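Hello,

Following up on my earlier ticket. Below are the four sequence lines again, exactly as submitted.
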Amino acid sequence: MTTPSATGGGDPAGGDPADGYTTDEMMTVAAARGLSSATTCFVGIGLPSTAANLARRLHNPDLVLIYESGTLGAKPARLPYSIGDGVLAESADALCSSPEVFNYWLQPGRIQVGFLGAAQIDRFANINTTVIGDYDNPKVRLPGAGGAPEIATSCHEVVVVVRQSHRTFVDAVGFVTSVGFGRGAGHREALGLPGRGPQAVITDLGVLRPDPTTCELTLTAIHPGVQVAAVRAATGWDLTVSADLISTDPPTADELSTLRRLEATKTGVGR
Amino acid sequence: MTTPSATGGGDPAGGDPADGYTTDEMMTVAAARGLSSATTCFVGIGLPSTAANLARRLHNPDLVLIYESGTLGAKPARLPYSIGDGVLAESADALCSSPEVFNYWLQPGRIQVGFLGAAQIDRFANINTTVIGDYDNPKVRLPGAGGAPEIATSCHEVVVVVRQSHRTFVDAVGFVTSVGFGRGAGHREALGLPGRGPQAVITDLGVLRPDPTTCELTLTAIHPGVQVAAVRAATGWDLTVSADLISTDPPTADELSTLRRLEATKTGVGR
Amino acid sequence: MARFVELDEAIADLVHDGDTVALEGFTHLIPFAAGHEIIRQGRRDLTLVRMTPDIVYDQLIGAGCAAKLVFSWGGNPGVGSLHRFRDAVENAWPRPLAIEEHSHAGMANRYVAGASGLPFAVLRGYRGTDLMTHTATIAGITCPFTGEELTAVPALNPDVSIVHAQQADRSGNVHLWGITGVQKEALLAARQTLVTVEEVVDTFDTHPGDVVLPGWALSYVAVVPGGAHPSYAHGYYERDNSAYAAWDATSRDRSSFETWLAEIGAGAGSSS
Amino acid sequence: MARFVELDEAIADLVHDGDTVALEGFTHLIPFAAGHEIIRQGRRDLTLVRMTPDIVYDQLIGAGCAAKLVFSWGGNPGVGSLHRFRDAVENAWPRPLAIEEHSHAGMANRYVAGASGLPFAVLRGYRGTDLMTHTATIAGITCPFTGEELTAVPALNPDVSIVHAQQADRSGNVHLWGITGVQKEALLAARQTLVTVEEVVDTFDTHPGDVVLPGWALSYVAVVPGGAHPSYAHGYYERDNSAYAAWDATSRDRSSFETWLAEIGAGAGSSS
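Thanks for your patience. The regenerated structure is below:
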């Protein structure tokens, strides 16, 4: 591909590795590294928001963050507590209504990277945030779609940040809330979806990327100290491991301290 | 009809008649009287704007004026020179974009009276502001539609203010820019147009209203000193005169002085 | 022209059993006080419409006010689940809750269509998702110029829409700013409207994200300082994140929820 | 990210013969300086798009820049006719001018569709008018939920949209206020954009009717004080109504118009 990929760079961390960090911290740092060359990012709340704000602080201060609350170019001084946090409005280049953020900004493909979380994700990177079990008689009712279905289709590419477990990484989600590659290669195109779909799924164990031919998520990077067998055990399908599997650089001291300072901003009262 | 009509009242002027006034002044005063009980008015520029602002000054200070420039509730201290005049913005309750004024305010039927001018108007109150002669090889190219087609269909009722002449009042306009009653009774309904259409055409000679049965414009009021024959001569069809023809009260001294003070506001530099 | 009334009078006049009611506000300016008044007045069989049900709808659902929920994201933002919503959907407690779910983009466009006097809106959305299977109010539509296939959603036209704004002036014009979500569209889509406000002022200042709605387009304005708590009112008070966190425990258990109901003055048996 | 450039450089880079170009601004903030630069650079065969052609398009049409005009109201506001527009339509001088005419509501919605990445927009409009006969870009569309018949218009996606704003900041964000018409939509609908501004400021104040567009969504910003004259720039200068009135005489006659062309520095033979 000739277009620059926001998630393509290995982006050597280039600092001294830090001692003692959690798997969540590794995940967030890896996700932030994936945004080192991104221009615009539509940010979901939670892990994606932490990673996107970390990327702005570490190596991409010009990264434009768009939240679905209609805050364009938010530069929050602390981590937002929710997607409609007042710090997003106060720091945004511009504010717009809900219809406008979806119709004028997301839908026309103006945003490069869509940064999503997931309750469940499957082999073809389809995301379920709606329901576990039968739709009309659910075992667990999840929050639902929010902005995700259109983020997943309209952004040029999608990055998913999610903790990996056998319950979360399933062979096929029972409910497709947001389309990854549908039933596999060619399905996005058949549906007429404009974006390229999920290009990276960054977890607490490693990084999965779609196979260029089959679009099946395969393990392409593994975090320090994690065994491939552990990743496979935390995956609900027979996970393919890339022949070019790389090992993620551990967080540098700078990455880790920046992340921790960022996380600490959220513990205040705030709103 | 049970809904109050903005143009239904004879609304006695109730003051001393003024000496010496022009036919244009009579027309504007008559048009302003027609707005004495109106609530909201979508205002075209020119004569309609003068009359609407006069109505606010004379007897309906709460009349809400909406201009197609997206100025909602404009209360201009002087007559606007154009429909996008800065005095409209400065005095408005709220400002909105062009899409919003048409989609959110006009289209849903939120505005009671549409106040329009016309280059030509016909027997069924259809308005032409597009072209005289063949469309592709015109004798006179007029400005075109502007906001009028949707004002004519979406406002609850329409009032037209136009000087009357044989050239302007034609049997059937060569180009329907804004629909009055189309080809006659029932045509608006067949087209699915929500508003009741033109309820008064106020000219420098008198007032024409649609016949309740045929929807043909008939002469229902005549201005002081004007002969019926003169009105008929200035009409391009065989004008029916109402059996209940009334004579318009001449402008009162107050109406006339208020109008003249209002007109004088426009002669300054302004913008 | 908007009339200034007390909150209880406005709710009594506007909200009737069986009505379709939208309380909007995207994280910010959520009309909690109005929601609690609906609970106190014991309304039933409401169709509740809202992009992000938030805890205000968790409370209305738990109190048994709702027969149906039309929504796009039903969580406790920054905290987790809406337990009363889940209990209604998963266990039909205190009564069965029908759901009609969309994406945010779909809901926003449904309000736009409603505000525009159109029966439907067009968007690029839902394709390939299972929402198309389970939600009847999603349809295909073909561009008459290009032949392209797109998605249509029907207009939302609530019987009543309620929002909270920072200010009204003495003419009943209302002013909100900051994150303003879909509030303008929700009000303009509704047959009748109520805006609760923090205060009445003589004139409006300007702020980023200003939305001013003319009083002549509104039904009622009620002055309710703090009416958005525990959500926030930009320029007035911050979000009470601890209240959102505490709701998780209060709502997780039916009996602690019923204690809460009694505390806000809901009549006996409100939830059953 | 918007780049700051000189006006002539921006026009040379953005506007090419045969392009579809929109200069927007509803009475207010009309980008006259940019229009005059297009004339000076001698562009030809443009499709000019604008709700209210105003005298800026009268000038471009008279100068022979345009092959086609897409519009909804072509007059000299407060004065009368656009004589160069009429001469082109009525007499094909200086060259034939194809027209595609709509209502304001239709044009506004065409820009909305363009800004939204949709191929068409839906409205209640045109029914019963002869515009439906003479304008190919109007079609019927049926609501998939109610069966109601409505009207569709195709998206406008200009090659270049140009607007004038009061201010830019140093990051290239632009700020306009007062009557803002369809400028946001025109910019967001276009493949490339130019915003001319009165001045560059460190930070934006707030004003009624604020519109802020992020620099990362724009191509070029050019600082052109007075760039909207003889229209007005709210907060900077008033409309030069006498210039609008004077244009009636200047434009009524081909030779006085050609004198005007020479005065603004258009090359010889610009109009032929």
